[in-house]
Design a protein that fits this description.
Blueprint lengths: L2 H22 L2 H7 L5 H7 L4 H29 L2 H20 L3 H29 L2 H32 L2 H22 L14 H12 L2 H31 L4 H28 L2 H25 L3 H27 L6 H19 L12 H22 L4 H13 L6
Helix pairs in contact: 1-6, 1-7, 1-8, 2-7, 3-4, 4-5, 4-6, 4-14, 5-6, 5-8, 6-7, 6-14, 7-11, 7-13, 10-13, 10-14, 10-15, 11-12, 11-13, 12-13, 12-15
């Protein structure tokens, strides 16, 4: 697409579409955060084991991950609007099905499909942004997505707690269905196709497989995806283990924990916004390094705090630094991953989403290996994740591998050691 054509498309869409695209990112946070306050009541009513009830959380996370892998290539082939409408309608129906579930097994299955449907909105928010924006505007847009995700994480538990006071867990799922219906109306009214027919890819599974291979052979893209997955592993470890650390070990009340959670989410919002601006005006790679350093400092502080039983303030500051660092890495990593793939932005976005939720889902159970009274595993998981992310940056993004592959291809085609 030529630059004048892109500018014309941006102007034609305007702010309302940007708002709707940002709202699509809330599918993940609201699907998890509104639901958690009623998990104990759900366990009791369905006469389920705690481990079985927790599978409803895992199922939704897996659905959010794999839904993006399906929706991304589909949106590259059929356009963004059609798959998005299907996904939002499916989200409404499966949320209602969750509310009507008679047994825990039905609920687990419904939660997986609900996650699949929610993943559609997440991946298309990223891909449609790549259709509309480039350069500084693109990274600024991804900064806004990060801010909205942080805002949803702040208000989600609050809304869930308030709803739990006036309704049961079935009412929470009906509320999620209502949110889906509101988003559906917004999409129908505002969202117009952002990927013209002439720019769509043709082919079925064979083409999708070829596109995936093309992406993972790109060192910069693969590095950005791995960094995204690894820092989100640290983030999900925090989400999984912080409640036990702050309430179980340090004795915070639920209200105190909510305050700490809200502070970290506020840091996530602020640094996501700042990172978007900083990447645009200064350097994407430089901003990414700052975010990774913040992650490492916060994770290291958390491990030291756990090992030496430092005061509560050390835990709070360490978590805030780490979570803010994760937010700071998100806009530049997303932009670096998608910048060179406007033709398959949906497919590229799907791998980013898969990495976020799959790595997070793998890391979350590890923090409990030492028991509820030991914070060292949380510190270890976050430190290992962030160190690996920094290693990936050093070998794949700081010194991109693509020029090397280009030199090798020239060497093969010419048969000359010098490539001349």
């Amino acid at each position: 697409m030529t630059e004048p054509a892109r500018v014309a498309r941006e102007q034609a869409r305007g702010r309302p579409l940007a708002v709707v695209l940002c709202v699509l990112t809330v599918f993940g946070p609201i699907s998890m955060d509104l639901y958690l306050p009623v998990l104990p009541a759900l366990t009791t009513e369905l006469r389920s084991a705690t481990s079985a009830a927790q599978l409803t959380v895992t199922a939704c996370l897996l659905g959010l991950a794999f839904g993006q892998v399906v929706a991304g290539p589909a949106s590259d082939r059929f356009g963004r609007r059609g798959p998005l409408l299907i996904g939002v309608v499916a989200y409404i129906l499966t949320s209602a099905l969750c509310a009507l579930s008679p047994a825990i097994e039905t609920l687990v299955a419904a939660r997986f499909v609900q996650g699949l449907a929610g993943g559609v909105g997440i991946v298309i928010a990223q891909a449609a942004g790549r259709d509309l924006y480039s350069g500084g505007k693109l990274v600024r847009y991804y900064g806004r997505l990060t801010v909205i995700g942080g805002l949803a994480a702040i208000i989600g538990p609050v809304i869930g707690g308030q709803l739990a006071a006036v309704t049961d867990w079935r009412g929470i799922f009906l509320f999620l269905a209502a949110i889906g219906a509101a988003i559906l109306i917004a999409v129908l009214v505002v969202f117009r196709e952002t990927l013209p027919r002439r720019e769509r890819v043709a082919g079925g599974l064979t083409r999708a497989g070829r596109d995936f291979r093309r992406l993972i052979r790109d060192g910069v893209f693969l590095g950005a995806v791995l960094i995204t997955g690894l820092v989100n592993a640290a983030l999900f470890a925090y989400l999984s283990g912080a409640t036990y650390v702050l309430q179980g070990i340090y004795g915070l009340s639920p209200q105190g924990y909510s305050f700490a959670f809200g502070l970290n989410s506020l840091g996530f919002m602020v640094f996501g916004f700042v990172a978007g601006r900083l990447s645009e005006r200064w350097s994407e790679k430089g901003t990414l390094v700052i975010g990774l350093v913040m992650c490492l400092v916060g994770a290291g502080g958390l491990l030291v705090t756990a090992a030496f039983h430092l005061p509560l303030i050390a835990v709070i500051l360490s978590l805030l630094t780490m979570v803010s660092g994760v937010a700071a890495t998100t806009p530049p990593a997303t932009s670096l991953a998608l910048a060179n793939y406007p033709d398959i932005a949906g497919t590229a976005s799907s791998l980013l989403g898969l990495a976020r939720f799959a790595f997070g889902g793998l890391a979350a159970p590890l923090v409990g290996l030492g028991g509820a009274d030991d914070a060292v595993p949380l510190g270890l998981v976050t430190v290992v994740s962030t160190v690996l992310a920094m290693i990936v940056y050093a070998v794949s993004i700081r010194r991109p591998l693509r020029p090397l592959r280009g030199a090798l291809s020239v060497h093969v085609s010419t048969g000359s050691p010098s490539g001349r």
